[in-house]
Each structure stands twice: as C-alpha cells, then as structure tokens.
Amino acid sequence: MWNPPELQNMVLLLFLTVICWMSVDSESAGSVQRNISAVEGQTVSLPCEAPNQETIRVVEWTRPDLGENPDVLSYKYGHFDRDNHRSYKNRVDLKNVKDGDVSLIMKNVAFRDSGTYKCFIAQGGESNNIKLISSISLSVVPPGDPGGQGGGGGHVGLSVGLTVAALVVVGGAVVMFLRHQQKKKSPPPPPNSDPDLDEPLNQFDS
Predict the structure, then answer these.
(1) Do 106 and 61 contact (CB within 8 A), yes or no?
(2) pLDDT tens digits, residue range 137-171?
(3) Which among 149, 45, 33, 169 is positioned nearest to 96, based on CA atoms?
C-alpha cells in the first residue's frame, strides 16, 4: 500500500499530465475534428470551411503520414499546384472556393486512402498566416462492411471531453482517499476525565 506522500505525488503527476496534454493539443483547439468512414469506390467529402468572408488566398490539404510529400491538394492565388502526391492525381478537388467551402472531394477512395487529413487556410493579404481549420480521420472499408455505413462519423471532441472528465474523476477520487487515510491515522481525541476518579481514595475510609 502506498503511503500518503506517494499518493500525493501521483495526484500531482496526474494533473501535470492533463495540463501537458491540453497544451500539446492547443494547435487544433479552434479546428473541427471529425471521423468519417467510407466504402471503397465511393466519392467522399472531407469538410473544411473558411472561418470568415475574407478572400481565400491559400488552401492546403495534407496527410502527414505520406512522408516526404504530404500534400494531397494545394491551391494558391487562384491556381492549383500540380506537384502533389501522385496517388491523388486526378482524384481530388475543392468543393467551392468562392463560397468559402474548401471541402476536399475525393473520388474512387481505396483502403490506402485511410488516414488523417488536415485542412489549412490563409485569407486576406497575408498568405503566410495559414491556419489549421479542420482535421479529418478517414477510414475506408471494403464493400459490405457495416463500418462503412456511418458516413458522417462522430466528433473527436466528444472522446477528448470524456478523457478529461475521467482524469478529473480519478484525481478527485485519489484526493478523497488521501483525506480518508489521513483521518484514519490521526490520533484519537483524549478521553473525557471522570470527576469521580479524581477524588481522593480515602473518601471511603470515613
């Protein structure tokens, strides 16, 4: 059984872990995160919309696990960059740049297309001020697989919120346990003195 100092260190480590996790995830704090499933051969739309009405200068859809060339689609100043990953050639497009909807349209998806896609947008006059807008996890399954019927998927934010809630509950339980242990180990209060016992023993001699 751990002693109270060791449990206190565990509580401190737990909350430091939560803080570190939140700081690491701060990059995508203002972005949309979703899971999307699709069946092989389908056309899918990975959502991404500009946060305001300013002119869209740059759009970049990337997939980090592609290695040296993670670019899936690049749009800069009204033109598409053709130097993207070869596996997406002639299969991807943007939905409607003029209306601010730069969702990635991907045709004839295959299992190898499964992965995490990130959408970056730069608006206004500064093309170098590019921001992460959405992060989409795409899962492609064979035809007939029930896992591919969901389409819309769920929000990753829900699982994140549940994780944080679980950590808080665990931390609170440990703190309550510590307090209980300290109460058990505290010395009992002194017994109340009996005035009859304090009288002289010779009171019965008379």
Answers:
(1) no
(2) 999 999 976 655 444 444 444 444 545 455 555 55
(3) 45
Element spanning 164, H or E: helix 156-185
Rounded to whole angstroms, how far apart are CA atoms 90 and 83? 12
198 DSSP assignment? T
Closest CA relative to residue 100, chosen from 28, 52, 35: 52
3 state DSSP class of 127: coil
- What's the pLDDT tens digit per position in 165-206? 555 555 565 566 666 666 666 566 665 555 554 555 454 444
The residue to which tokens 């909807």 are assigned = 101
Distance between CA 76 and CA 83 in Å, rounded?
A: 12
The neighbouring-strand residues paired with 104 are 46, 94
